[in-house]
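Quick entry between incubations.
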Amino acid sequence: MTLKEVQELLEADVLCGDDDCLQREVRICFACDLISEMLLYLKPHSLLITSLTNAHVIHAAQVMDAKSVLFVGGRRPDPSVVASGEQNKIPLLVTPLLTFDCCGRLYENGVRGDKH
Amino acid sequence: MVDSLTYTPKITVEFEIGEKDFFIAGECASRVKKTLQQLGLKQEIIKRIAIIIYEAAMNVAIHATSGKLVVHIDPDGITILTQDVGAGIEDIDLAMKEGYSTATYEIREMGFGAGMGLSNIKQCSDDLYIESKVGVGTNLEARVFFNNRKKTGEDV
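Done. Structure below.
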């Protein structure tokens, strides 16, 4: 599914990312709140789901070539973090849903983790 | 994509890392990654190097009062060095164990301090050497060879 479809499915707001970015295909997701785990397991072109909202998340996503980041639980990052996402061309979304529900809805719609 | 950089002159990049300068780690990793991409190295190798740099620089920012990260690129591989002045490591074997951490709540709240840093570095390095003196500081030297297929599997 596209990032746009992910946005609708998870009732998310787009914090940054233009229409072109939102047409990116999302096949792999990774949910995690530890930076070291992001570095180790985050695969290129995947969607990162996290409740961390600091700039380290953007750094980790950028270094690991993640496609986009979804913040859960309605946690909105500071404008500087959004600016960093914009600068690195990493679309950022925020959903009121918590991690379990996000993953459940995505899985139901065919999105998988890396090991599938 | 190339396995070795026979055409590449030696390159050295150096970063100063201050106490609690948490954002420098991502910048170090990001900048070296761009350089390695320009050199045309394979993505798996670049990823391993980026992880080592990120974790090593973060360790200095978290545990030291001052330090530096130096990256040497040569035709055969890359050497990542950190030298810091700070707390030092009392038991290196224990510190290498995944899950062992002395990081504060503040650090953990940022998503760090999970006790995975040194084990991540070890997993991504071909050679790793650490020397430390409590109350003085720590030196770390990690080496990644461009032409070593041993650790370039999908899991790293």
